């Protein structure tokens, strides 16, 4: 399970006056990196908004297949899994609706987490049905809801409990944890999860997205060789992706800092 540390990160003190210009440059570079990460997060949110029906249909079908398998074999867990799926319908719908146009996203996400209309919320589904496929999906939805609500500690908790071999959802969950750790100022942990997201699947959407985020964080951590490796991979393998648009600038910056 992913873990987090209390906030309180402080930059190293400046020992020499001559270092002032260098520190200012580092702060500027760090700001650019975080702006890039924010832009990447916005693109991910836009992707979900445009494709939410397809995405959630995939998740729903995966859960139904598992439920069907359990029912067919008459496992003890079968009835509980079906019950969990029925309980989850309202919470999941509120979660999906939160990404629609012209709605109060934060409000709907909170309703999805807490429950409504006498139905359980996502966190209740996890607590009561965590061992079922629906409980697993609820971990993902709850984690992403908390990430959007800027509750990064809970985002790490719930996304860390989600498990999937899906080519999109697996990397998105790992990358979501990385985004949360960036906001918690735990950049080493963020880099680790971005790299896990890269390894989880090779595709034209999540791979270049998390290659760029991993490279930017690595650059901020002073790991220019690793950053350069990831930037060049975007250029060579994903030249048509959004992340490749300004890749030459990133490559040049990484080479200059070696």
What do these coordinates show?
The protein contains eleven helices and two strands. The protein has helices at residues 20-72, 77-97, 105-114, 122-129, 133-148, 152-160, 169-183, 187-200, 206-220, 224-237, 247-256, and strands at 115-116, 119-120. A two-stranded antiparallel ribbon has the order 1-2. Strand 1 and strand 2 form a beta hairpin. The longest helix has 53 residues, at 20-72. It starts with 19 loop residues before the first helix and ends with a helix.
Q: How does the SSE layout of this entry go?
A:
Layout: H1 20-72, H2 77-97, H3 105-114, E1 115-116, E2 119-120, H4 122-129, H5 133-148, H6 152-160, H7 169-183, H8 187-200, H9 206-220, H10 224-237, H11 247-256
Antiparallel strand pairs: 1-2
Helix pairs in contact: 1-2, 1-9, 2-3, 2-4, 2-5, 3-5, 4-5, 5-6, 5-7, 6-7, 7-8, 7-9, 8-9, 9-10, 10-11
């Amino acid at each position: 399970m992913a873990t987090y540390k209390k906030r309180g990160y402080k930059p190293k003190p400046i020992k020499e006056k001559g270092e002032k210009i260098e520190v200012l440059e580092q702060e500027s570079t760090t700001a650019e990196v975080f702006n890039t990460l924010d832009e990447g997060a916005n693109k991910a949110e836009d992707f979900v908004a445009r494709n939410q029906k397809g995405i959630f249909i995939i998740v729903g079908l995966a859960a139904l297949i598992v439920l069907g398998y359990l029912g067919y074999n008459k496992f003890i867990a079968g009835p509980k899994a079906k019950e969990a799926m029925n309980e989850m319908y309202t919470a999941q719908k509120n979660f999906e609706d939160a990404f629609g146009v012209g709605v109060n996203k934060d409000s709907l996400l909170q309703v999805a987490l807490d429950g409504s209309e006498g139905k359980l919320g996502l966190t209740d589904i996890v607590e009561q049905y965590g061992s079922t496929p629906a409980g697993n999906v609820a971990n993902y939805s709850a984690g992403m809801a908390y990430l959007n609500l800027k509750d990064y500690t809970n985002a790490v908790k719930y996304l860390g409990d989600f498990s999937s071999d899906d080519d999109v959802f697996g990397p998105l969950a790992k990358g979501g944890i990385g985004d949360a750790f960036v906001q918690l100022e735990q950049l080493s942990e963020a880099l680790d999860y971005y790299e896990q997201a890269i390894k989880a699947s090779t595709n034209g959407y999540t791979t270049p997205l998390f290659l760029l985020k991993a490279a930017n964080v690595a650059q901020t951590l002073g790991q220019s060789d690793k950053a350069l490796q990831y930037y060049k991979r975007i250029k060579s393998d994903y030249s048509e992706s959004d992340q490749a648009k300004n890749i030459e600038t990133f490559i040049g910056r990484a080479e200059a800092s070696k």
